[in-house]
Amino acid sequence: MDMNIVAAVFMENIELRPAPGPSTRIDLTGVHFSMAAPSPVPVTVEPHLVVLVRCPPDGKGDGALEAVYKRDGEQVARNVQPLVVEPGKFAYRLVRAELEFEEYGTVEVEVRIDHGPITTVPYTLLPPA
Known about the structure:
This protein is mostly beta strands. 18% of the residues are buried. The chain has one domain: Immunoglobulin-like, CATH 2.60.40.10. The chain is built from no helices and twelve strands. A five-stranded mixed sheet has the order 4-12-11-7-8, with no helix packed on it. A three-stranded antiparallel sheet has the order 1-6-9, with no helix packed on it. Strands 2-3 form a two-stranded antiparallel sheet. A hairpin with a 3-residue loop joins β2 and β3.
């Protein structure tokens, strides 16, 4: 059995803290799927995507995490990084991309591990508040 994506969200901050067990807590703050542009378009933003991954006890524990950013079906950015997760454990990876917006709208990120199932996460840029 291969690794799988448990969750993928855009966020402002991530903190890890120990808990009894031993166990770890992952605190995500500012989870969002849209934002007001910092200035009128054209503008470039760099949203932070966190991907939580699980490797089952009988998993191989290594692979590649791929994130493809698309607007209207066209690729606008791509990030590929190695992924190593101890079997039976969880891990996270941060994915960042520079996204240029000529107009307000939505970019969808297709995230997957080793050409496996795709998890799609939308990110919408809104007019400045």
